[in-house]
Structure formats: structure tokens, C-alpha cells
């Protein structure tokens, strides 16, 4: 897909605007065969600090495991974003057009007692009623190993 294909679509997804405040998300992880392997919820709080969105994400998995990620996302130009988080290698880079946002990054992903360096290719799509749907493909050495689907909703919606 090309992010420019979404330039005239609505409602517009402005990452700094949408992810401010309290949000809740529900997600599922599928292995490369399409089998659902994990479910989770995420409670998030986002706030602007100058020109940087600080997004605190608290994950709770169906098996009881918890995790936390804190993103720091700054706008770089009219449509481009750069983000960092504790488990992200280097920087996440993304671009928004219309209702879509696309970004890519590498993560040291903990699975059981092991850690794997994987690449995420995320596509987010804003829907009506302050809902955003995120589809992420996870690859290792260029091969797809999993897909993640997450639905975000603002708490005050």
C-alpha cells in the first residue's frame, strides 16, 4: 500500500491529537498460520510535552502477564513522525495521510524466556466514533512470523 492513497480520506488521523487523553485498546496476536495465540487489553494515557506526545501504554494479557511501553512521538514536518520507546531499537518512523498512519520500527520482543529482534510494519486506520484499527505485521529476517490486530477507542467516546 501507499500512504498517499489515503490523503483525501476522513476522518483524519492526527497522532498527536487522537492519542491525547485516556484510551483503551483490545488486541489479538496471530501466528504465521493465522492461529490466535494471545489476547490483550491496553490502557493508555497520552499527553503533549512541548512538541512531543508521551503515550504511556499498560498491557494486560489474557494469561495474566503485564507489560508497559512509553512512547515519545514527535512530529517531523507536516505528515511525518518519529518515535522512541524503551524496547524500540533506534527510532520508529512514520507518515500520516487522511485517515491512515503507517510506521515501521524494530523491537526486542520478549517471548517466554527468550528475546527476539523483530520488525513491525504498522498500519492504523481511523474510523467513525473515535475508533482506530491497527494491523501490524511482525517479521524476522524478512519472514512474517505474526500479525497483531488492535482496536483503539478514546475513553470519553
Automatic annotation (TrEMBL):
Q: One of this protein's Pfam families, by short name? A: DUF3833
**InterPro entries cross-referenced by the UniProt entry:** DUF3833
Name of the molecule in the record:
DUF3833 domain-containing protein
Q: Which organism is it from?
A: Thiohalospira halophila DSM 15071
Lineage of the source organism? Bacteria, Pseudomonadati, Pseudomonadota, Gammaproteobacteria, Thiohalospirales
Amino acid at each position: 500500500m501507499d500512504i498517499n492513497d489515503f490523503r483525501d480520506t476522513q476522518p483524519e488521523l492526527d497522532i498527536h491529537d487522537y492519542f491525547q487523553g485516556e484510551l483503551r485498546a483490545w488486541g489479538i496476536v496471530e501466528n504465521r498460520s493465522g492461529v490466535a495465540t494471545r489476547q490483550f487489553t491496553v490502557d493508555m494515557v497520552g499527553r503533549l510535552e512541548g512538541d512531543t506526545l508521551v503515550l504511556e501504554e499498560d498491557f494486560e494479557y489474557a494469561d495474566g502477564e503485564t507489560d508497559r511501553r512509553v512512547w515519545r512521538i514527535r512530529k517531523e514536518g507536516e505528515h511525518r513522525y518519529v518515535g522512541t520507546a524503551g524496547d524500540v531499537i533506534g527510532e520508529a518512523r512514520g507518515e500520516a495521510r487522511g485517515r491512515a498512519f503507517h510506521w515501521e520500527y524494530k523491537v526486542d520482543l520478549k517471548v517466554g524466556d527468550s528475546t527476539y529482534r523483530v520488525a513491525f510494519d504498522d498500519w492504523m486506520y481511523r474510523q467513525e466514533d473515535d475508533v482506530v484499527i491497527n494491523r501490524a505485521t511482525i517479521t524476522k529476517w524478512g519472514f512474517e512470523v505474526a500479525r497483531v490486530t488492535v482496536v483503539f477507542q478514546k475513553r470519553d467516546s
